[in-house]
Design goal:
This protein is mainly alpha-helical and about 180 residues long. The protein is built from six helices and three strands, in the order βααβααααβ. The protein is flat.
């Protein structure tokens, strides 16, 4: 039978090397995180402020930027915490973070599918585009993509974390995607 245990948390090994290497990695990750968030915020503000950008594709692009900020904000703080940590181990609440990360990622993919439908309607039905892709349809499509993303990942994440683990709960990576 084997040595099985029920792991509820994982220990992620930090970056090997000196404190100087950890500082450089922290600065690099923080810079990339800040640029990602600021770039997406600029896109959201531009879409909201400019009246010329009040079409369905830009509405979807704004929601895609919100999802990108949320996805990045789910993963990056853990990387920053590991890079800044003086201890080699970092406790990772795997169930919560994994569920949120996967749900946001699935919502992003669903929203990209919605954007593809928008493009399809624009190319194949250009004369009826404004009737088909009205504001209520766009809002409904965004709501469905967000709800689908979160509901679709409930069972896989729950089922995965009900499994038993036969090895150590120490992972040799700072973030396991």
């Amino acid at each position: 039978l084997g040595n099985y245990s029920s792991a509820t948390e994982f220990f992620l090994l930090g970056f090997p090397g000196s404190q100087e290497v950890c500082r450089i990695l922290f600065a690099t990750f923080f810079l990339l995180y800040a640029v990602t968030v600021m770039g997406n915020v600029v896109i959201i503000i531009t879409v909201c402020v400019d009246k010329c950008l009040q079409s369905p594709i830009y509405f979807f692009l704004g929601h895609l930027c919100v999802l990108e900020i949320l996805i990045t904000s789910t993963a990056a703080p853990f990387m920053l915490g590991v890079a800044a940590s003086k201890h080699p181990d970092h406790v990772f609440d795997s169930l919560c973070c994994t569920a949120i990360y996967l749900s946001l990622g699935t919502s992003e993919l669903a929203l990209m599918g919605v954007m593809a439908v928008d493009h399809y309607v624009a190319v194949c039905n250009p004369l009826r585009y404004n009737i088909i892709m009205n504001s209520s349809t766009c809002v409904w499509m965004v709501i469905v993509s967000w709800v689908f993303g979160f509901l679709f990942q409930i069972w896989p994440v729950y089922a995965t974390f009900q499994l038993t683990f036969c090895k150590s709960n120490v992972l040799d990576h700072f973030y396991c995607d």
